[in-house]
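We were asked to recover a plausible sequence for a given structure. The inputs and outputs are reproduced exactly as logged, with field labels preserved.

PROBLEM: sequence recovery
POSITIONS: 107
GIVEN STRUCTURE:
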């Protein structure tokens, strides 16, 4: 049977981690960043050791222009999974965005 992820959004039906994650990614890809962010944070409340979720939350922060928060989230993800190169790449892009927003005298 094929279930629609939206059918599990009712308050009385708990969502599994996988369904929450799938829904957050769908919202993220659809540009609904605030909704995706809420779900990512909900996941991290119960399962904080999720470097992929931290990375995606960092990408949301970056898309919203909150570079400091993005960097912080990327660093947390890297500390949890230092061997995952894509996390370092996200962090470096966020740092570049941070520096691009500063004047030369601010470094």
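RECOVERED SEQUENCE:
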């Amino acid at each position: 049977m094929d279930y629609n992820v939206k059918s599990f959004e009712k308050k009385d039906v708990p969502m599994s981690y996988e369904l929450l994650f799938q829904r957050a990614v769908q919202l993220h890809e659809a540009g609904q960043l605030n909704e995706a962010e809420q779900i990512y944070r909900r996941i991290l409340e119960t399962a904080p050791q999720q470097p992929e979720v931290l990375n995606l939350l960092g990408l949301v922060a970056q898309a919203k222009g909150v570079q400091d928060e993005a960097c912080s989230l990327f660093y947390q993800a890297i500390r949890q999974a230092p061997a995952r190169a894509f996390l370092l790449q996200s962090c470096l892009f966020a740092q570049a965005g941070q520096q691009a927003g500063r004047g030369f005298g601010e470094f």
